[in-house]
Write a structure and sequence with these properties.
alpha/beta; 9-stranded mixed beta sheet; 24% strand; 20 strands; single chain
Length: 495
């Protein structure tokens, strides 16, 4: 007898043969898939199970993988109502000087709840960001995030690393209602990163992994001898730490020659996932071919408005491209169905040709290709015997998903996160019939609201949740109008 049997489902396997099996059976024993195939071929030893789910009217897909997102952003979504400069500045102020461990725990729980209900079973997320602000002054922040992941039943690879020179960086630490100023050094950030790696890196067994990150540098950063020296020393230290522990490496916000520079700095390899990556040069393409690094395409992000990620051209060059949400802020969420659809529309509009980015390719980018980029292709990313049991059942018996034909096309063109009915992660049933089994939704939502309120009070940024004038009746509005806090420099480049 097996632990779980899903019968009568349409299985979109994303296996080597890209099989779509009608009237399929999927059997799970422990944390592993032990059979995928037609119900008629179900071996007798798997015909009974502790738990049987009738998947009639549903499609089974591998657990979705979000390869680029930001911890912290779930609580700051929509701040500034489109004023990206104010939003980036608010991220820095809140993350470095207005947040507590409770803030990061509440945000992680909210993000994991949203992911779970969207069928995202694995993600790579940065412990901060916005403007290279990572909460790596104390391991307690990473511990809180990892604890939330473990409780949710999902998997997270948490990216941690140093901020941008010069150091030290001004941070605040809260003990009760009392704030203490901290001058955060590069060395301290690296110590915290190594501590988190040693205790939390084990995404297949612990369901928490650790990746390293460092800021993206442009050619102009290398023009001053002192700056170039500091950047090279940072690159060497991060590359050494990554190599010693064999972890994944990621960067946020490549464009226009920065990938070639990263290769020169010695940080790239097949272990690297480089996000956004817009307006790439020939030298960037060459660096990707030579190093085997993967690109994370975030088609819904603001950076994909400022520039274009040449995802189809990269794919045609044999370079792996995967999908990321860049969520949950400032203006989007973790719904990978939406991001798959946006990836199709984004490039079809560019080429004025609806043949680009077909449904199968975008689903691969959110499943098997992403698993390969994370070094987990043998374990995740498809519905195959022997792989980890990450299974998502999508309710296809809905008006916007009918008539009942071409399941691949319906899933990628018309489905949304709200159509996810049941989620199995690591062999464990974490949502059934749209009911979350591992988290208390009301408690998660209330904690998230309370922690944002406290963070805004600490930083004096409560005005950023007031919707500005000018949002009605016109084709364009000025997001700075009525905004109570304006940064001195427009920062909108990465999200």
């Amino acid at each position: 007898m097996t632990d779980l049997l899903i019968r009568n489902v349409t299985a979109v396997t994303v296996d080597a043969g890209r099989r779509v099996i009608e009237d399929a059976a999927i059997a799970v024993d422990g944390d592993r898939i032990v059979h995928v195939g037609p119900v008629a071929d179900l071996p007798s030893q798997h015909a009974t199970a502790e738990k049987v789910i009738d998947g009639r009217g549903m499609a089974a897909i591998p657990g979705l993988i979000d390869s680029h997102s930001h911890a912290g952003h779930g609580l700051v979504r929509s701040l500034g109502a489109g004023n990206t400069g104010a939003w980036f500045a608010a991220c820095e102020e809140i993350y470095a000087r207005g947040s507590t461990v409770d803030f990061w725990r509440a945000e992680a729980e909210l993000a994991q709840l949203e992911r779970l209900m969207a069928g995202v079973t694995t993600n790579l997320t940065l412990l901060g960001g916005g403007a290279d602000i990572y909460r790596t002054d104390d391991p307690a922040f990473g511990d809180a995030h990892c604890a939330a992941t473990t409780a949710s039943g999902l998997r997270t690879v948490l990216a941690v690393g140093p901020g941008r020179p010069p150091f030290p960086k001004p941070y605040k630490v809260y003990e009760g209602n009392e704030a203490r100023d901290v001058a955060l050094s590069f060395e301290r950030q690296m110590e915290v990163c190594e501590d988190l790696i040693r205790r939390h890196d084990g995404v297949l067994d612990r369901r928490t992994g650790i990746a390293l990150i460092m800021p993206v540098y442009h050619a102009h950063h290398m023009e001053e001898a002192g700056d170039a020296k500091a950047i090279r020393e940072m690159s060497e230290a991060v590359a050494d730490l990554r190599a010693r522990h064999g972890v994944i490496y990621t960067q946020d916000g490549h464009r226009d020659g920065t990938i070639a520079l990263a290769q020169e700095l010695g940080t790239l390899g097949p272990f690297a996932l480089l996000s956004h990556s817009v307006d790439l040069t020939d030298a960037d393409f060459a660096a990707l071919r030579e190093t085997g690094a993967s690109i994370v395409h975030n088609p819904t992000a603001i950076m994909s408005i400022y520039g274009r990620c040449p995802a189809p051209e990269l794919i045609d060059e044999g370079i792996r491209v995967v999908l990321g949400s860049d969520a949950g802020a400032p203006d989007r969420g973790f719904d990978m169905f939406r991001h798959m659809k946006q990836a199709m529309l984004y490039h079809r509009r560019h080429f004025a040709d609806p043949a680009w980015m077909p449904p199968g390719k975008v689903l691969e980018m959110a499943t098997i290709d992403a698993a390969e980029a994370l070094g987990l292709g043998a374990e995740l990313g498809s519905l195959e015997t022997g792989k980890k049991a990450d299974i998502v059942l999508v309710d296809m018996r809905k008006p916007h998903l009918y008539p009942a034909n071409m399941p691949l096309t319906r899933l990628t063109h018309f489905a949304t996160a709200a159509d996810v009915d049941t989620v199995v992660s690591d062999g464990r049933l974490v949502m059934e019939n749209r009911r979350v089994l591992t988290m208390d939704m009301g408690a998660v939502l209330d904690a998230a609201q309370a922690e944002l309120t406290r963070a805004l009070e600490r930083t004096g940024l409560a005005g950023l949740i007031e919707e500005p004038a000018g949002m009605w009746g016109a084709s364009r509005f000025d997001p700075s109008e009525g905004n109570p806090w304006q940064p001195g420099e427009r920062a909108g480049s990465r999200s």
